[in-house]
């Protein structure tokens, strides 16, 4: 069973890219970030306009939602690096190039809208946010995976993970304005996921064993693109404890739905290398199930103890 080079994969998959691009353009809805920002809630900050300095009491948004909003925004801020990575991998020509630029344009709205919301509503410290942006963007982003198939596998899962994170952050914020905005952004992320997921589905038909290896490599080493944010581990734990994005959601709402769509455990005709990759994937998912269950059990027990303490008589 032959293996395809990246050049061959780009050529063979280009008709699929063109078809998926046409489908995307038909279903994607035009929207405008400024329409999702409650501008009337804004007022001048200290500085050149002599307004009021930010204070923690200015927003009623829960701390865990604020942490997630900042992580999501800083992740979106690295768009120039993401564009560089996918343009380098997929190219700037024909349907591939058209998609790369369209994706970048759509993603660009997300950072603009979230920053406007946070600034106008005083949800987070704007000085700390800007300093964090400078540090994070100064680090840049480099794709951890080489090659077309690995890159497609990564973004198939990452776009869905981002969608889940945005939607759940909106719910936890307890702010209808925030939830409306993040739901709109999540809708974009879902369409992006569909594009990449369908494209990799075509890759499975073209090179099943080679694609299986790529999927297994990505699933077993997956990290969100914001993993380089300063203090990410602590922030990720806050987000997980709030139920915004945790191992259970990663497994049940991201990995398994996409893997089922590709029918990875029903594929036939795999080479010995492809079968080995599938076995590795199955074993990893089993271990992840154990870890996810252990995490949620511990979190539920901790919440129960806190609730009991809060309701117990003094």
UniProtKB/TrEMBL annotation:
<keyword id="KW-0275">Fatty acid biosynthesis</keyword>
<keyword id="KW-0444">Lipid biosynthesis</keyword>
<dbReference type="InterPro" id="IPR005067">
    <property type="entry name" value="Fatty_acid_desaturase-2"/>
</dbReference>
<comment type="subunit">
    <text>Homodimer.</text>
</comment>
<keyword id="KW-0408">Iron</keyword>
<keyword id="KW-0443">Lipid metabolism</keyword>
<dbReference type="InterPro" id="IPR012348">
    <property type="entry name" value="RNR-like"/>
</dbReference>
<keyword id="KW-0276">Fatty acid metabolism</keyword>
<dbReference type="InterPro" id="IPR009078">
    <property type="entry name" value="Ferritin-like_SF"/>
</dbReference>
<dbReference type="Pfam" id="PF03405">
    <property type="entry name" value="FA_desaturase_2"/>
</dbReference>
<comment type="similarity">
    <text>Belongs to the fatty acid desaturase type 2 family.</text>
</comment>
<keyword id="KW-0479">Metal-binding</keyword>
<keyword id="KW-0560">Oxidoreductase</keyword>
<protein>
    <submittedName>
        <fullName>Acyl-ACP desaturase</fullName>
    </submittedName>
</protein>
